[in-house]
Amino acid sequence: MVAASFSTLSPLSGLVELDHLAVATGGDIVLAREVLALFSAQAQALTAALAGLSPQAGVEAHKLKGSAAAIGAVAVLEAVGRFEVVMGQGSDPDAALGALRAAVADVCAAIAMLPSSPSP
Predict the structure, then answer these.
(1) What total number of domains does the chain contain?
(2) How many CB atoms lie within 10 A of CB 37?
(3) CA distance 45 to 61
């Protein structure tokens, strides 16, 4: 069960597994919010970098997958997994990349909507 202080993260419901995030951050809401902010910045940068489909795309996708797993962003985790499979098969990645961008945008938008001061 999520700690009461994590109720301030309700805009993330359905996008991030809040129980997972609470465990990963030791129930520290301030740390959880810091981790979410870091995820948002990194996810946006990595998604933008993936658009170029550089030779580093696999490494960048793997970083994003790890970050999504760390906070419990299931839709991002699944989308980046599909992107990795498509890239590994040498198939056209446009649809997978579009789905990944949408999943990241949804989570980042919800993070941006969080109240500015957390409840301790």
Answers:
(1) 1
(2) 13
(3) 11
Which CATH number is 29's domain given?
1.20.120.160
If you write DSSP's letter for every residue of the chain in order, what string do you get? ---GGGGGGGGGTTTS-HHHHHHHTTT-HHHHHHHHHHHHHHHHHHHHHHTTT-TTHHHHHHHHHHHHHHHT-HHHHHHHHHHHHHHHHT---HHHHHHHHHHHHHHHHHHHTS-SS---
Question: How far is the C-alpha of 79 from the C-alpha of 102, rounded, in Å?
Answer: 9
pTM of the model: 0.89
pLDDT tens digit string along 39-94?
999 999 999 999 888 788 889 999 999 999 999 999 999 999 999 999 889 888 99
